[in-house]
Amino acid sequence: MIAQLQKSSALGLVLAVGSLQAVSAEVAVEFWHSFGGASGEALTQIIENFEAENPDIAIDAQEIGNYNDIVAKLQAAIPAQRAPDAVIMEVTRYGLFADRGVLLDLTSYLDADPLKDELFDFAREVGVFDGKNYIVPFNSSTPVLYYNKAIFEKAGISEAPELVTYDDLLAVAQQVTDALGDEGISGIAAPGQFARWGLIMDNDSDLIDSVSGEILIDAPNTIEAYEFMASLVHEHQVASPDGVTKENNGRDAFLAGKVGMMINSTGNYAQAQASLGDDLAVVPMPCNKTCAVPIGGAGIGILASAEQEVQDAAYKFISFAASAESNAIWFDKTGYMPINKGTTSQAVAADALRSKPGIDVAIKQLDFARGRPRPPVVTWMRATEYDMWQAMALGQREVEETLTEFADRTRLEADRLTN
């Protein structure tokens, strides 16, 4: 597949002894990603800028779907020998592919690249699995709390409310629902998986310990967090079950002015701002028992199956995409956090910080942001968690019973994957 894409037998880019050396040739890189809308437009601009500077390299960018879709399609493509050359991989799910030798170890590339010292520590760390670099960060995020000021005011909340604890969230959600429920407006969107992880962390727990690998799904504080989240839907009815059975429904309802607040990725900032304009408010995540937020987003990895010259060309693009200039475009157009120390000194990023209220909230949370685990079992755990959450949120199963069973199954799966 790769050979068919090459437009010349000569080499457009060679990486020798850890340094990038360009020679004249042409090569195409098939790149799978997950970005549409404003994010897709920003990525297209970055690719066009790269190709203008590197006319011997063509980036064949293909939008595959969301992170889950990419994992599923990559797993299907590998045995069929139809895998891409480079791929966006969510920061907790690439470990499975690194562990199986599917992703190329990028350590020698990054060690020889000035980019290594330009990246923030958190951004550099998200690409490390088993002491080696397998992805280079592209879009980094934390969850933040968005709310609709117009809905709050209509519900009688005229001043910015305190939204620090679980009780604060519930009280505001109940006030909105009580005041506006007859108009089809609910208080809060049912939390998606990224938001759920954040609410677990700020209840001083985790799903899997990022250092030791201990399964914490059935830890008391994790159970307490799920009990609160599930109660928003089936007990207090301040969140619609529509956002449980299909997580994007909650986000879409918020953007349509039918939900008072939502917890979601900072990567949703651009869409939320475009939808709500001056009615949008962005505040930090709650700190129920502690202040802690997960670092999310994705990085770009290279397939070990790609030809050497394609791997070299792909890395050159990856490095360009993480540069201060490219990252400033990405930050401005999407709201994803800066990953490069030089990003905010770029004019476009500096202007965004001045003119777009709330775009800096995720940056301010970095003091208590934490990386998440990425052992092979995380891919299975995250895929399975959706069904567990749905059963709990819809009141079909008790939370403690569900999480105890889920934790046991996760431990067995972790053992299976490591033996």
Q: So, CATH architecture of the largest domain?
A: 3-Layer(aba) Sandwich
For the sheet with most strands, the description reads:
5 strands, mixed
CATH class of the largest domain: Alpha Beta
Number of helical segments?
A: 20
The Cα radius of gyration reads 22 Å
CATH superfamily of the largest domain: Periplasmic binding protein-like II
Query: How many β strands by DSSP?
Result: 15
Helix content: 40-55%
Tell me the domain tally.
2
Measured by DSSP, the beta-strand proportion falls in 15-25%
Distance from N terminus to C terminus (CA atoms, Å) equals 33 Å
Average pLDDT confidence is: 93
State the secondary-structure class.
alpha/beta
Stretches where pLDDT is under 50 for at least 5 consecutive residues are: 1-25
Strand line-up of the largest beta sheet: 4-3-5-14-8
Shape: globular
Topology:
Blueprint: H1 2-5, E1 14-16, E2 19-21, E3 27-33, H2 37-53, E4 57-63, H3 67-77, E5 86-90, H4 95-99, H5 107-111, H6 115-118, H7 121-125, E6 128-129, E7 132-133, E8 136-141, E9 143-148, H8 149-154, H9 166-180, E10 186-188, H10 193-201, H11 220-234, H12 242-245, H13 248-255, E11 259-265, H14 269-276, E12 280-283, E13 293-294, E14 296-302, H15 308-321, H16 324-334, H17 347-355, H18 361-364, E15 369-370, H19 377-393, H20 399-418
Parallel strand pairs: 3-4, 3-5, 10-11, 13-15
Antiparallel strand pairs: 1-2, 5-14, 6-7, 8-14, 9-11, 9-12
Describe this structure as you would to a colleague.
With 419 residues, the chain is an alpha/beta fold. The chain folds into 2 domains: 2-140 and 296-367, Periplasmic binding protein-like II (D-Maltodextrin-Binding Protein, domain 2), CATH 3.40.190; 143-294 and 376-418, D-Maltodextrin-Binding Protein, domain 2. Helix content is 46%, strand content 16%. The strands form 5 sheets. The protein has a 5-stranded mixed β-sheet. The protein has a 4-stranded mixed β-sheet with strand order 10-11-9-12. It is globular, with a radius of gyration of 22 Å.
